[in-house]
Amino acid sequence: xxxxxxxxxxxxxxxxxxxxxxxxxxxxxxxxxxxxxxxxxxxxxxxxxxxxxxxxxxxxxxxxxxxxxxxxxxxxxxxxxxxxxxxxxxxxxxxxxxxxxxxxxxxxxxxxxxxxxxxxxxxxxxxxxxxxxxxxxxxxxxxxxxxxxxxxxxxxxxxxxxxxxxxxxxxxxxxxxxxxxxxxxxxxxxxxxxxxxxxxxxxxxxxxxxxxxxxxxxxxxxxxxxxxxx
Amino acid sequence: xxxxxxxxxxxxxxxxxxxxxxxxxxxxxxxxxxxxxxxxxxxxxxxxxxxxxxxxxxxxxxxxxxxxxxxxxxxxxxxxxxxxxxxxxxxxxxxxxxxxxxxxxxxxxxxxxxxxxxxxxxxxxxxxxxxxxxxxxxxxxxxxxxxxxxxxxxxxxxxxxxxxxxxxxxxxxxxxxxxxxxxxxxxxxxxxxxxxxxxxxxxxxxxxxxxxxxxxxxxxxxxxxxxxxxxxxxxxxxxxxxxxxxxxxxxxxxxx
Amino acid sequence: xxxxxxxxxxxxxxxxxxxxxxxxxxxxxxxxxxxxxxxxxxxx
Lengths: 230, 256, 44
Hints:
The structure holds three protein chains of three kinds. Chain A is mainly alpha-helical. Chain A has one domain. Chain C contains one helix and no strands. The longest helix of chain C has 30 residues. Chains B and C meet through α2, α3, α4 and α7 of B and α1 of C.
């Protein structure tokens, strides 16, 4: 029997994660409500329509960042609960393929969450999406999500199966993910025209986000094996 | 009548982590640091633009130099551990010791920088690329030390922390680039035009040079002591387990 | 000297942190050193 290729391993891991998420409904029943509550709470904290319109892109991405921490914890809690990651390793699965599978499953979940948050912000904060900003918003969100997922997958893999990981993960991920927050927020501001910005101001940020995603994507696929392998 | 004290029976000296080399280093760095104090506070003149606030620079710049030096050493030692054929645990301890020193000096740098900023800019903090990168690097290395404190074998700890140490190297340029780009789009937000790039006269430059030399010596001294200390912490954790096992075995043997 | 509090404060903070950090390192080293035989100390 030939051993499965990297692509096959990645696809299987990806499909497994998405299937578990669909059946357990963790995203829709717990994380989305949390994110929506965050959006509402921001409105309470920053009383005033003008401030909310000005800060909406930043608030959406902050809510994303915090919610993503919960999603990542869940994604790896599943693996370590029954020693599934060890089983994969013992079975000889290529760990960089496992990294890509888990990372892309995370990308899909985060994109779904993003749609909900953006819709929430458009409805509740009264921001308007210009036709010319749609391409920028979509491309920058996708590359920001890829970068965020890569970073979170690396550090969640590192902290998986260790006591006290819940408090460690944000400490490790959030400083590294700060370029994502800066870039995604600025790009979204340009797409929405917040504070009189024009769409062309957002394109350099797409560059930052893409470089980030590529660097940590490759960094992760190299580092993931040694991190998990003991 | 002679009484054997426990100290005289053990094969260990109580010299601790010092050797003749570290003693020389220690004396040199104390002398240089005192000299730095004299130059920085008394001999060097006040700056034309910054006034006496420039004196903070003589401790601020050397400590940020030391902090970055420490993180470079951590990254280098992490690479030696990870890619070296022997996966040397000693390299891992050097990386850990260096990161601890770096975190301390990064904290000092941030606070002295804020005090300088309050005098020169009128505010403690400014969202400039250099400051922001330094602050995020500080938090990242606090995270690195937390990773070192995780449970697991010494080999696990070494591999994990080596990878985190190397990932931090990827982080720094990306953070710096993104903050720089962010701030360049908000030019109006920069407070005043004053920056660190002041024209330095001979004595000022010399004071700064004294500081950098003093702190480099200090770093070497601290690194030697600290990595030896970490070696002994690992050893005593190991021997502690051995002693406990021996005691349990002795108890078991006595009861049979 | 103007702003003497800020300036002396930063010197005190810098040198104080160095002294405390170095002191603790040496002290822990001395304490541990008593329990470990000299063969295990490659620097001696």
